[in-house]
Design goal:
The protein is mainly β and 69 residues long. Helices cover 6% and strands 38% of the residues. The longest helix is centred in the first third of the chain and has 4 residues.
Length: 69
């Protein structure tokens, strides 16, 4: 739930990356953010847990590939 999410500053994504939770103004009913994306719908109950809708697509960091011949 959002109240649980607000207790963390960083969480680990399933892909291994890091998610930064920004909740500084949440107690004043402002938006919470994750990696700069606004959480626009909180606490959506789904079959396997809780989902939060955001307004951006989060992509894992890509590693550069060295193409030497």
């Amino acid at each position: 739930m959002a109240s649980d999410l607000a207790q963390h500053e960083y969480l680990q994504a399933l892909s291994g990356g890091e998610l930064r939770i920004d909740f500084n103004m949440w107690h004043l009913h402002s938006h919470m953010k994750v990696n700069g994306a606004n959480i626009i719908k909180l606490d959506l109950e789904v079959d396997n847990g809780v989902c939060h809708a955001i307004d951006k697509v989060l992509m894992p960091k890509m590693q550069a590939v060295d193409k030497q011949m």
